[in-house]
Write a structure and sequence with these properties.
Layout (H helix, E strand, L loop, with lengths): L29 H20 L11 H25 L8 H41 L5 H19 L3 H4 L1 H10 L10 H29 L17 H14 L7 H17 L8 H49 L3 H13 L3
Helix pairs in contact: 1-2, 1-7, 1-8, 2-7, 2-10, 2-11, 3-4, 3-6, 3-7, 3-10, 6-7, 9-10, 10-11
Length: 346
Amino acid sequence: MSRARDPHRSFFPFGNPFRMISPKGSQMSPQLLGILNSFEATLAERLKKLMPKNKDEILSISWMTLAMESLCETHNDIKNLALDIDLPVTDWDEKWIDVYLDISVKLLDICIAFSSELSRLNQGHLLLQCALHNLNTASPQQFVRACSSIDGWRQRINSSNPRIEKCGTILDNLLGSLDLPKVKNSAKGKVLMQAMYGVKVETAFLCSVFAAVFSGSAEKLLDLDVADTYLWAQAFTNLQHSVRFSNGRFDVLKELEEVNAFVKKLYPIIQGELDTVETEALQKTVEETGKAAEKLSQGLDHLAKEVDGFFRVVLSGRDALLSSLRSGATFYDSISGGKMDDQGVN
């Protein structure tokens, strides 16, 4: 699904940047080429694993959790690649550093927005729990309280999150900052930039899927053009096509929709719209609603942990770069020093 105002948005507005980063005298050695090919092949397999099995899967918490895990793994892979090629920060072009820091800030902002939305949805679980607790008794007074709690739950899940609404602008700014700078006579620099391109494509697209799902607006879904010269290009194109056309809507999470379906069964009962209420039928519906609500809450908790993990992966990489710039240490030393922390994220 492309945006109405810009139906075919290229990831890079100025054409393929890798025409600019193939300078003479920077031929890759077999070792560097092997490192790059390994990175791209791994990214291709990771993207294949994200292919939705049916049209509703991208609206599920389980798929979104898998997508966030994929981002964490890819960002950790780019750190490992930086270690493998052993490119000192002193050899980084200032423009590379500026682009990296700019993108990392935007990704941190997006993570904060996603975390706030997951927290907002999970807070609604407390209201629903309160309603279900009150429905364990046949007291009309408790029914009134349950109705009030469900009204509060509905209001919360149907309201918009200003931070999510701003994600579209952040993603637009992210695209505008991704035109890669030139690489001058540096084979290692070329490897780093080409690998980072793959990271940015996956990151921008998956973040746009999250923004689309959370906002209920397909307009937030990015349409990225990728040249077929990369080992992961076909896998990405297939994934993007599948996500864009497998579902004509981005209105509600699958698990949330399931809870809402049970709530719709309960609502006429607690509002007194039915003349008679079968206690056994009511209890069964309350139990089913409780199970669906608990499944939703646990899924939201798990996804929130993955989003927090991605936030820390991005932050640790940013901190490692800034630390090496301040101390004069190599990026290798800075990342290695933070590796134990990174392992604790997942």
